[in-house]
Amino acid sequence: MTQVPGMETSAISVLKRAVELDQSSRFQESLVCYQEGIQLLMDVLKAVKDDSKKVHYRQKIKSYMDRAEQIKVHVNQLKEEGKYHEQIRIADDATGYSYEVLFRPYVTEGVTEVWVIYPYTIKHIHQMIYCRKLYNFLRFCEMLLKASCKVKRIHLLTSQEEGDNSSQQASALSELKQSLQSQDVCLDLQYSTFHDREIRFDNGWIIKIGRGLDYFKKPKGRFSIGYCDYDLRQCQETTVDIFHSKHTKTL
């Protein structure tokens, strides 16, 4: 019984976030939060002994389940009609937008294949900045490995670098490819010249970020908050557009 207050606090926090996302028309994200919050409330329901409190929690659970079902029907209808579009605006200096947070609602259990269009459009870019771009793609791959899905193949379409960055790009991507193979994930590399940035999952979700994966600001120092934890890292202003297609195109 001593755990109930903490469990209830967690449930309230998650469900409050679900309602905020719902009111902002960020329906897929709100659906995930509703589902998590409902499960937490069900855990509370199992733990309480007082009958009046049980009635209260059952009513709350039913209310949230009804709303979650409404959202699910609405989202599925938009997806079926090919009309789903959601936009997230990340403000300058905002925090709380790690890859885990941003992509979690769309990296569902059935995802096995991912397409990443990730250009390095600035030639002769400073080596330190270029390293950050490579590390950001690495972090994205790590996020996929930690997700509930079982990704088996990642397609990367990027531009081939010139000059000093060419050998670094080849070496880094070769090392990453071998590392992913040890996790039973195949990295498929292709090169092209383009400016688009988007990420597609084989469950139909398409994510287009104005700055690609590079929307984080450089930390103020090596021992500053946000250096390691990207949920605490400040972001650059950008927009994230989310679409859904029943037929995910290959690169």
From TrEMBL:
Annotated MIT domain ranges read 4-82
Q: Which Gene3D superfamilies match?
A: MITD, C-terminal phospholipase D-like domain, Phosphotransferase system, lactose/cellobiose-type IIA subunit
Checking SMART domains in the record gives: MIT
- InterPro entries the record matches: MIT_dom, MIT_dom_sf, MIT_domain_contain_protein1, MITD1_C, MITD1_C_sf, MITD1_N
What protein is this chain from?
Answer: MIT, microtubule interacting and transport, domain containing 1
